[in-house]
Design brief:
Elements lengths: L20 H6 L2 E6 L4 E6 L3 H11 L4 E6 L10 H12 L5 E5 L8 H9 L2 E2 L5 H6 L1 H5 L7 E4 L1 H5 L1 H6 L11 H5 L4 E6 L4 H14 L2 E6 L3 H11 L2
Parallel strand pairs: 2-3, 2-4, 4-5, 6-7, 7-8
Antiparallel strand pairs: 1-3
């Protein structure tokens, strides 16, 4: 059933009615699912729950969200083109667009494209950095042997780590792929005992020591607050 504009804005989706993580991984979230108004956030599907939580908590009713498939992180060379297409497709519908991606392995190409398109994006090399806070993360220079997971990646560990690396078919590859890593760092956005336990299990499966850090939303909150004020 289509939404009748005369009946008022469509209710903003909650975490309970968001698409499953598998859908956010494969398909993303279409613009308009979260009705807002003046500002569109174009984000990675892995950030959908965190961004909608921040929108609700802060009453940013003038913001809407569209997400590209989270699986693009497996192909960082495709991110810039996908973001450009999304901005081009949506820019006439909104007064402002903000890109909720960091560099994410694009080697500066995404920043250059956003500059050319006249849209802002989140500062930092990747989501692990901005969740912890870019300044704080930069002080972990010694952690070049750490493997990071967020809430979303803990839940989607098989889809983003185990299967793409072929460990489901060839578990003997584990020590070759992860032999130079020393620990798995779980950067938690929420305090969830079930996710904590699953992250510990992920570390065990990879043969790595486990470290837990509660980061909350980090610089994601700061970046979206800045966009909301403009």
């Amino acid at each position: 059933m289509s939404h009748d504009p005369a009946s008022g804005p469509r209710p903003r989706p909650t975490a309970e009615v968001l698409p499953p993580d598998e859908v956010l991984t494969e398909s993303g979230l279409a613009a308009g699912t979260a009705e807002g108004g003046e500002i569109l956030i174009i984000a990675c599907g892995a950030l959908a729950r965190e961004i909608l939580a921040l929108i609700r908590l802060n009453g940013w009713d003038h913001m809407s969200l569209a997400c590209l498939p989270a699986k693009l992180h497996l192909y960082p060379e495709k991110i810039t083109e996908a973001v450009e297409a999304a901005v081009t497709r949506q820019r006439n519908r909104f007064n402002q667009i903000f890109v909720a991606y960091a560099d994410c392995g694009t080697g500066g190409l995404l920043q250059a494209k956003c500059d050319a398109l006249g849209v802002e994006m989140i500062a930092g090399p990747h989501c692990y950095s901005f969740f912890e806070g870019n300044d704080a993360f930069a002080r972990h220079a010694e952690e070049i042997t750490a493997f990071y997971l967020t809430d979303f990646l803990v839940k989607q560990f098989d889809a983003f780590v185990w299967r793409p690396m072929g460990l489901d078919r060839h578990p003997e590859l584990r020590d070759m792929i992860f032999g130079n890593y020393t620990k798995l760092v779980y950067q938690a956005q929420t305090e969830d005992p079930a996710l904590y336990a699953k992250a510990e299990e992920c570390a065990r499966r990879l043969g790595l020591a486990f470290e837990y850090r509660f980061t909350g939303y980090g610089d994601l909150k700061t970046a979206l607050a800045g966009a909301a004020r403009k």
